[in-house]
TrEMBL record:
Coiled coil: none
GO terms, molecular function: oxidoreductase activity
Alphabetically ordered keywords of this record: Oxidoreductase
Cross-referenced Pfam families: Aldo_ket_red
Alphabetized SUPFAM superfamilies for the sequence: NAD(P)-linked oxidoreductase
Enzyme category, top tier: oxidoreductase
Name of protein: Aldo/keto reductase
Domain of life: Bacteria
Lineage: Bacteria, Bacillati, Actinomycetota, Actinomycetes, Kitasatosporales
Signal sequence, start to end: none
InterPro entries, A to Z: Aldo-Keto_reductase, NAD(P)_OxRdtase_dom_sf, NADP_OxRdtase_dom
UniProt KW Oxidoreductase keyword: yes
Domain NADP-dependent oxidoreductase, residue spans: 26-321
């Protein structure tokens, strides 16, 4: 499938009830400063610009990506294109400066307030378009957390609210306090646990689903097959059970139907994975804005071109059994995820 589409823009959809129109694919900016090994800064900046030319308008970061560095990295781009883009950032994961593998969560109202001020300062903006709770802190009632987030909306610091890795009941409780525009959770050919409880609640409430890691953190593209052997020291994927040892070998073999389908359609594996997310969401009757992450211009062109790939029902069926056969969890500690609390 060609990636050549000049300046043809991707289609748009609405973010939450009454929210802004955004391109049907967003851009995950995390890898530009955090988690996935060394980055070429100039190429990453050019990727942000190219994404916007192609109609990508939702840009995703978080305060914990590089201890604020990712927000600072995208800030000049955000400020230069403030009226054209929808800026999403997050609070709630507390990283240990000395050991990024150690993570805590904090949803206290006072902590949220300090986080929003930090994000606004680093991003150099007056308002955040979409502010997410990154992880649920079970020590704080979700009503209290969302109540504090709603105050930020009332004060004009934040426009819309989002939640990441929440369960269906948590989403319903939150939405009763203040409308939630978006739920961001992992959803891909490899990771479908959200389809049981989260997706039905998202649909019922008219929330937009923002699938993160739709490329299975790159594994679904065939770019690496074993994190320990192929990725650099400090790459977060080396600590993810499904990308190492025997699990990685089992999971690499699961890509065979994706590879065959990609060949048949003249597409890349990644394009098949992205088309799958869009179409799986349609099966559930949901609007989605997946946010594949990339730091490379060629890849943003390839990924956005996937919005034009439509898989047939029989092609979708071929990919259906894969998630059930994946070896290893998507995180070492699944208590950190919605599936761990369902
Ligand atoms: N809410 C949460 O808890 C949470 C968790 C994880 C991620 N996120 C967000 O979701 C975004 C996306 O998730 P993700 O980055 O973890 O995973 P992803 O989008 O599934 O995959 C990103 C990886 O795939 C590579 N890649 C991208 N396009 C490719 C292509 N066409 N061909 C080959 N490789 C390609 C990227 O490498 P290059 O960058 O080198 O191109 C990167 O290593 C993040 O950036 C972040 O904003 C949120």
């Amino acid at each position: 499938m060609s990636t050549e589409h000049g300046t043809e823009k991707i289609p748009t959809t609405r973010l939450g009830t009454g929210g802004p129109e955004v391109g049907v694919q967003g851009l995950g900016c995390m890898g530009m400063s955090f988690g996935y090994g060394p980055t070429d800064g100039d190429e990453a900046r050019a990727t942000l610009e190219r994404a916007l030319e192609l109609g990508v308008t939702l840009y995703d970061t978080a305060d914990m990506y590089g201890w604020g560095e990712n927000e600072k990295f995208i800030a000049p781009f955000v400020r230069a294109n403030r009226d054209e883009i929808v800026l999403a950032t997050k609070f709630g994961i507390v990283l240990d400066k000395d050991d990024p593998a150690k993570r805590g969560v904090n949803n206290d109202p006072a902590y949220i307030r300090s986080c929003v001020e930090g994000s606004l300062r680093r991003l150099g903006v007056d308002v955040i378009d979409l502010y997410y709770m990154h992880r649920r802190d079970v020590n704080v009632p979700i009503e209290e957390t969302v109540g504090a987030m709603a105050e930020l909306v009332a004060e004009g610091k934040v426009k819309q609210l989002g939640l990441s890795e929440v369960t269906g009941p948590e989403l319903r409780a939150a939405h009763a306090v203040h409308p939630i525009a978006a739920v961001q959770s992992e959803w891909s050919v490899f990771s479908r646990d959200v389809e049981a409880g989260v997706v039905p609640a998202v649909k019922e409430l008219g929330v937009t689903f923002v699938p993160y890691s739709p490329l299975g953190r790159g594994f679904l593209t065939g770019a690496f097959t074993n994190a320990t052997d192929e990725l650099t020291e400090g790459d977060n994927r080396r600590a993810m059970p499904r990308f190492t040892g025997e699990n990685a070998a089992t999971n690499a073999a699961l890509l065979e139907p994706v590879r065959k389908l990609a060949e048949t359609r003249g597409a890349s594996l990644g394009q098949v994975a992205l088309a799958w997310v869009q179409q799986r969401a349609q099966v559930h009757g949901l609007p989605v804005v997946p946010i594949p992450g990339t730091r490379k211009r060629g890849r943003i062109e390839e990924n956005t071109a996937a919005t034009r790939l439509v898989l047939t029902d029989s092609e979708l069926e071929l990919l259906d059994p894969i998630a059930g056969q994946v070896a290893g969890g998507r995180y070492a500690d699944m208590n950190f995820t919605s599936a761990g609390r369902e």
